[in-house]
# Entry
Amino acid sequence: MKILITILALSMISSAVARADLTVASLSTITTDIAKNVGGDKVKVIPVIKPGIDPHEFQPTPDDVKQIVTADLVLITGKHLEGYLTKLEESAGGAGKFVDTGAAFPSLKLEEDGKLVEDPHWWHSIDNVKKATLVVEKRFIEADPANKATYEKNAAAYIAALKDLEAWAKREVATLPREKRKLVTTHDAFQYFARDFGFKIYAIEGVSTEDEPSSKKITDLINTIKSEGVKAVFFESIENPKVVAEITKETGAKVGGELYADGLGDKEAKTYPVMVRYNITTIVDGLK
Amino acid sequence: MEGRPWLRILLIVLGFSLVGWPVWSVTRYASVPSPVKPASDAPAEPLRVQVTFASPPASFELDYLGKPLLSGHAPDREFSGDWKAAIPKEGVELFVAAKWPPGTPTTAVRVTLTRDGNPLAEQTFWAEDSLAETMTVREAQP
# Structure
């Protein structure tokens, strides 16, 4: 009986995959979530970057390149996060099938080492994710017009869920006094969140996780945490929490918890809405 | 002296006292008055909040730090109440949520905050079907 059920399940899965009319490779866990929601069973999504992988340090393997070359569309988050993009476009024979979801809205610019850099972490603004969803919907319809109605229906449902998420987020953050909205994180990934919800960010590292903080920067940060009375310091799911532990020891601030900064995870952040709820709950509870 | 041990003891005690007094006076615990805790930067002040709807809402609430200040529903279109809060330099945030019956066209909500009868902040929100927005109130900069 068990064998029969397994065969039946496998045949159902294979027929679902066979029904997919579009193959989409995704270079971010965020765009993977958008693609799965908009595409439904009409799209086979290949998550090239999987949960828990640091997109700042990711480099595609030959197998990844093969999957990207054969895909109908390739979703990227843009804003210079995918440093290997030019090479990938050359391998794929041009930029035509690459969908830059981050191009749908303006970038925040951050000063780093005396020059302005684009902040690539746009998914921490729920409004940006709504706009990126519209970009994905449009490109899916262009690539597969036969399933237009499905993509429109799915995108509308996902955007409605994002609106509910936005309302929840505003209500939740409003319970935290504005003078307590000071967020110390491992790397500078929450500026879009800070803009939308009135936080001030103090980051240990720069925009990329590859940046190493100087001892002067850490000393300055420790002084700021003390003078501003910051209650908690947060570490990130893919970063080493040792520096955070040192800072909390020096300042008396507590460890606020783990945040998902660069994309989805395996545990509390399996989907985008779940990740947002987890991050906001952790931040608000930690700073109250 | 040899025949007066009590005198020797007295002299020793006197000697220790002479040396010990300055040492004790320097090292004794001094009770220093603790510094006065600084008063809150911004004292709590009485404020009046008024919410006006273009179309009566099916439900409405206005919260401050997660606690309801006002709530209500149709047929009323105007709600007001008194409230007390300190306004730090970062400001305070009010959360406004409302829902309208399905099919209600785009509508407007006006939130006005006054202190001693003088306007402190006001904001208009536009909504379709539902509203979940925040309003930040800050002191006017000199």
Notes: The interface with chain A takes residues 63, 65-66, 88-95, 97, 130, 132-134, 136 of chain B (CB under 8 Å).
